[in-house]
Amino acid sequence: MAFVQVVQVILIAGLSLVAGILAVLFVIQKAITKPFPVIKRRKEEKHFLDPIKIQNVDFPPVEDAPTVHLSVIIPAYNEEQRLPKMLEECMSFLEEKAKDETFTYEVIVVSDGSSDGTVSLALKYSKRYTVNKFRVLELLDNRGKGGAVRLGMLSARGRYLLFADADGATKFSDYDKLENNMKSITKDWESDGIVVGSRSHLEQDAIASRSLFRTLLMHGFHFLVWLFAVRSIRDTQCGFKLLTRSAAHTLFKNLHVERWAFDVELLYIAERLKMPIAEVAVNWKEIEGSKLTPVWSWIQMGVDLFLIWFRYTIGAWQLCDQNKEHVS
């Protein structure tokens, strides 16, 4: 058999195998996957503790009109060591802005099933600033960063909602950059809009300080994000994103992924719904103590990226817009 014929046979066999695997996946995913996420929340997770009055208070219904300008959601899993520095910078910045009476805010720390002193630490800030400005949502089980951010977003009172990582890797004063860009892409909080903090301008410096293996992993992940999900944003993973209340409710009610790749699904949904999105360079520095395991976490995210694309493509996952019935 000629070499060309051998190559053709191999290609046909390979394509047949891939087609067979995709067909099996199609049947399995259609059978086991629900089209819309089921958002579970225990009774104990529907309220927060007022440490001054020593009583539990219910979080407001997500359908309520906003009562503060900005809500800051901080997901925290065993962050007793890194959280204090971040909160000091955050609260100092917000208190300074609040000298202008038109700016009101709240901070919600979401403890994602923490087993250390994260909750006790956060409650000290709640007592210092009162629950009007600082609330603690304690999740009984670890859900993953996306799950923690989602429940924080659905408990918030803000016209605009920012989620920020507990490690303080992003300089909090960069919020002003995000806010200014939000004004350029939306009319108000009732319109959809997302502004994404970005570290892409720091990529060359990061490559210089990383090993070749970690650099290859980074480029591989960026390629998979571009291939399967998000085309308009270079840095999907920076934990500093500002959303209007309208956008937050639509996106987080549709979100399925609760692990590290939730940012990608969030932006994928936003692109599918044609929401205005802006990307803004922010100051960022790497902080020790990351919960990411370099190889295993990248593999998990790679699998999640493929499944995000595959499930939406075959209709196993569907979108529900606030202003429309369903978006296929």
Automatic annotation (TrEMBL):
It is found in: Endoplasmic reticulum membrane. It comes from the Eukaryota. InterPro entries: DPG_synthase, Glyco_trans_2-like, Nucleotide-diphossugar_trans. Keywords: Endoplasmic reticulum, Glycosyltransferase, Membrane, Signal-anchor, Transferase, Transmembrane, Transmembrane helix. Its main location: endoplasmic reticulum. Pathway: Protein modification; protein glycosylation. It holds the Pfam family Glycos_transf_2. Residues 71-250 form the Glycosyltransferase 2-like domain. Its EC number is 2.4.1.117. The chain crosses the membrane at residues 6-28. The keyword Glycosyltransferase applies. The keyword Metal-binding does not apply. Belongs to the glycosyltransferase 2 family. This is dolichyl-phosphate beta-glucosyltransferase. It comes from Bactrocera dorsalis (Oriental fruit fly).
